[in-house]
């Protein structure tokens, strides 16, 4: 190779080395030396959205709640109860723990239920559903007697009595024995107590159903609130003939006060006036039977030796 060609190649390599060094210097400059990007004008900035303000929390009041289920006749301790703060406090609910500690109820109390004075009152579900002058009486029913199985606690029914034709009852009859009785319970379904709360909690009803299912199919019953003066009449009617329960309309607004007063004399007199004596014709009211009995008693028997005769008594 000639020296001239060697000189040309050396010059080209030198030029390439200079170019490579230049580009290397350009690429190795620090980023801080680069010009900063232009900022947009202040008038183009988007305003920040306002932060929503949370509404103030409504006031809450403490209420005593059962932490766990309590068996009957078990004194309450601090581990059994707690204070829960609610916006709406039920009427009469205890609001301090010292109001319930050491007290016991004669019935089981379910977990999560709030406590008031009625939680410690004596008496079972039916006893807390009737008034002082009423008695709770159970009547056996089937789908026919119990209005096709559509009875519900709180309904009002008339008790009808059907008497078959027998020797001491020459003609079959049907009559209203007791009007406007309040239904307290149907099988295991209970109504409301006098304070407006359920007379039996869901846990108590479930335990009662489980207990009866162990012993087989129980007899279906309905509990009725019967005035004290008429409780024996219902018992007599149940033994004398066949009962039917006739449901009364819920639109009768006066049913709730029919037997509500302590003095139910007007209603009792009406029931007695419309009642037929069980052993007599259904078409002969009680007043007529009394008059007939008095007329038969107005004759007396006169015995003269071996002869006797019936003469009318003189007044």
UniProtKB/TrEMBL annotation:
<feature type="domain" description="SAF">
    <location>
        <begin position="61"/>
        <end position="121"/>
    </location>
</feature>
<dbReference type="Pfam" id="PF16976">
    <property type="entry name" value="RcpC"/>
</dbReference>
<dbReference type="Pfam" id="PF08666">
    <property type="entry name" value="SAF"/>
</dbReference>
<dbReference type="InterPro" id="IPR017592">
    <property type="entry name" value="Pilus_assmbl_Flp-typ_CpaB"/>
</dbReference>
<feature type="region of interest" description="Disordered">
    <location>
        <begin position="194"/>
        <end position="219"/>
    </location>
</feature>
<dbReference type="InterPro" id="IPR031571">
    <property type="entry name" value="RcpC_dom"/>
</dbReference>
<dbReference type="InterPro" id="IPR013974">
    <property type="entry name" value="SAF"/>
</dbReference>
<protein>
    <submittedName>
        <fullName>Flp pilus assembly protein CpaB</fullName>
    </submittedName>
</protein>
């Amino acid at each position: 190779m000639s020296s001239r060609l060697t000189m040309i190649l050396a010059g080209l390599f030198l030029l390439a080395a200079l170019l490579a060094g230049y580009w290397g210097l350009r690429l190795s400059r620090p980023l801080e030396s680069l010009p900063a990007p232009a900022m947009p004008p202040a008038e183009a900035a988007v305003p920040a959205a306002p932060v929503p303000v949370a509404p103030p929390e409504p006031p809450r009041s403490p209420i005593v709640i059962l932490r766990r289920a309590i068996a009957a006749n078990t004194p309450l301790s601090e581990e059994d109860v707690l204070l829960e703060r609610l916006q709406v406090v039920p009427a009469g609910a205890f609001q301090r723990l010292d109001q319930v500690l050491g007290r016991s109820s004669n019935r089981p109390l379910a977990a999560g239920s709030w406590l008031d004075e009625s939680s410690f009152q004596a008496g079972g579900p039916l006893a807390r559903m009737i008034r002082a002058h009423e008695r709770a009486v159970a009547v056996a029913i089937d789908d026919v007697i119990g209005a096709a199985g559509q009875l519900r606690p709180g309904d009002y029914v008339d008790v009808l009595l059907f008497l078959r034709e027998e020797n001491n009852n020459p003609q079959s009859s049907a009559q209203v024995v007791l009007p406007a009785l309040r239904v307290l319970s149907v099988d295991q379904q209970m109504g409301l107590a006098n304070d407006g709360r359920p007379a039996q909690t869901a846990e108590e009803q479930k335990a009662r159903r489980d207990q009866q299912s162990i012993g087989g199919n129980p007899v279906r019953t309905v509990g009725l609130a019967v005035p004290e003066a008429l409780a024996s009449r219902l018992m007599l009617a149940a033994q004398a003939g066949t009962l039917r329960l006739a449901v009364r309309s819920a639109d009768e607004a006066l049913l709730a006060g029919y037997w509500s007063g302590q003095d139910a004399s007007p209603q009792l007199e009406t029931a007695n006036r419309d009642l037929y004596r069980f052993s007599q014709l259904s078409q002969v009211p009680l007043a007529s039977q009394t008059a007939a009995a008095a007329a038969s008693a107005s004759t007396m028997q006169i015995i003269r030796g071996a002869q006797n005769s019936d003469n009318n008594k003189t007044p």
